[in-house]
Amino acid sequence: MTESSHPQTVANEGTSSNRADGTSDDVGALFDLLESHDSLAVVCHNNPDPDCLGSALALEAIAEACDVGRVDILYAGEITHQQNRAMVNLLDIDAVQYAHDRLASTELVAFVDHSIPGVNNAVPPDYVPDIVIDHHPMEGVAGTFVDRREEVGATASILAQYLRVTDVDVEERVATGLLFGIRRETLGFMRGVTEAEYDAAEFLHPFADVDLLRRLSDSLFTPATLDSIAEATRNRVVRGSALVSNVGRTAERDALPQAADHLLNLEGITTTVVFGVVGDTVHISARSRDSRVDIGAVMRRTFDDVGNAGGHKDMAGGTLPLGLFGILADESDELCSLVGETITERVFDSLA
To answer: Greater confidence, 196 or 223?
Structure first.
């Protein structure tokens, strides 16, 4: 199937009709679509996290139950976070690097945990995927089957519901992957959790490997990650209840969200933004537990004109090409520090 032949109708855009009530026409529509094709590429977002990986693993199992002959899980970027690496290894997730030619060689293309081509993925911006399953707030989502529910706390909860309302056998590794994805996305059911996550956990728990879940949760982080978190702690700038920190150049991209989570525990702090330069890109992670702050909207408002940014009310992130600031990747740390000061002031101005 070519790019231009992909239909652009929306089956379930932002609705909540696919509930675990055993009577979901929309889930049936997904199965009908899968059963009429022989190959599927499940495209993860860049640097996929447990919610994305668990959802991809579940969609792979559903596709195989629908007799799809070949299923590929694709991702761009890297899988470097210690828990993400452990998840891929221990659950034997066969994820391979994304390449454009893979889109042309498969009949169906699915996005999980993201929804817009070219935004936090390597897919060309003019491409229209066949299947989109996501929980992030986005506009202009198109596809043959779209299930986007921003009122749900994790994409894995949506996939768990698909399994619950069908007769697909729930494999231990799939249940474990989904449950771990939900736990990580909600920080152990403490952030952005909804009734859907509790329902999914209740359904998945009997099928999951609890000992393996514990091993995934206890995955050790590297000394370099600890150093980056320490750098974020040392460089913090606090104004009121907001904290912004610049870790400078780092190879530990996944340390940024960990630092943002860690610093949110500081007394008097309700919003954190941590950023650093990874290669030729500024990566940003943001968190908030202030009911007055929609940190996803703040990130979009602050950086959409110079990069990709967005997320949820309590958790968000973004990327900015370093070249936009006139700084090349091999230039001095002093110049990158000036970029950091610019970003810091921009964040505080937006929060104000």
So the answer is: 196
